[in-house]
């Protein structure tokens, strides 16, 4: 059936999603929601109130520069190490420093162009863990799965290594090979992957059988809303009886993109609540200008649906706009601000929690689907049946029959 092709051109080689290079590669897998480039003055120097506190730091810096036996020391490395150490004490894997090189890469990746094996990752408990695959990537073709732990790359032990440092061992020029040691549910195995240049479209779409529209959102980037508007305009012009929005293995993206996308499906009401550490709240509302605010709706989710994907799914669920089908989502309920620094690097720093319209914080727990459906495990992809997609089609078809007896 046609829909099976959609998901394996779309949801491609399912459970094979390891690839490196994408926006999360250089941040975290769940970048979203991310407020990019907030207006904060970062060149204030040491505040007077903190001068006494920071005296030991400068004492050590002077001692290293004047007394350490192997001179000269690398002051850039000292500075970056100090920043990374400071952020590490916060105990938040989503707050991190980007070197100038990594900052440039991250900005490029936000535009949807990556080089590597094609996966989204996050640091968890000192391990680099795959969160979500990139469709049709070398990693997907190699059969890597969400939850796989990358232990080694070409014999280099990545355990306990900083995320970006570890990612650098995995990514590389297109056409070159990397051998990864993977831990999957306690079993270890090696896989060789040929790196590639990967262009990532945010949105793909198709009209399925029984006149049901299908939209796949791969990530929430700069072009996502405009691509979605084009897809919805085309699909809705064909008068479908229902709409499936697929955010499986979508690791997230920018906050603005998440809000714009949710706005396309909601007739009004709250999209999400941002709650800061001091108790302040910011509430984001739909504008009532969306293109698909009344068509019967299903959202497909899984354990690779993170962050901005959870914003969208949570708003649709809490507003009663549609139902969720699939498996429990990843569970990332914090907002990061992306702040450039004077050295050309940057900081991604957690600034708030985000909550669904019903005031639910999904961090570490995720969103539970209304209808739980697991995908079958198959060795031959030609025999794969996308049971989650089929369930969504059946649901919308029955809904249409009930609405039009």
Task: Tell me what the structure shows.
It is a single chain. This protein is an alpha+beta fold and 405 residues long. The chain folds into 2 domains: 2-14 and 201-403, 2-enoyl-CoA Hydratase, Chain A, domain 1, CATH 3.90.226; 23-30 and 113-198, PDZ domain (Pdz3 Domain, Roll). It is 28% helix and 26% strand. The strands form 4 sheets. Strands 1, 2, 14, 15, 18 and 19 form a 6-stranded mixed β-sheet that branches. Helix 8 (255-263) packs parallel to helix 9 (308-318). Residues 1-32 have low confidence and may be disordered.
Helices, strands, pairings?
Elements: H1 2-10, E1 34-36, H2 51-67, H3 75-88, E2 96-98, H4 100-110, E3 113-116, E4 119-124, E5 127-133, H5 138-141, E6 149-153, E7 156-157, H6 163-170, E8 177-184, E9 187-194, E10 196-199, E11 203-208, E12 212-217, H7 224-236, E13 242-246, H8 255-263, E14 270-276, E15 281-285, E16 297-301, H9 308-318, E17 323-326, E18 334-340, E19 346-355, E20 371-372, H10 387-403
Parallel strand pairs: 1-18, 12-13, 13-16, 16-17, 17-20
Antiparallel strand pairs: 2-19, 3-10, 4-5, 5-6, 6-7, 6-8, 8-9, 11-12, 14-15, 14-19, 18-19
Which structural traits does this protein have?
405 residues; Pdz3 Domain; 2 domains; six-stranded mixed sheet; six-stranded antiparallel sheet; 28% helix; globular
Give the total of domains.
2
Q: If you average the pLDDT, what whole number results?
A: 85
Low-confidence parts: 1-32
At the fold tier of CATH, the topology name of the largest domain is 2-enoyl-CoA Hydratase, Chain A, domain 1
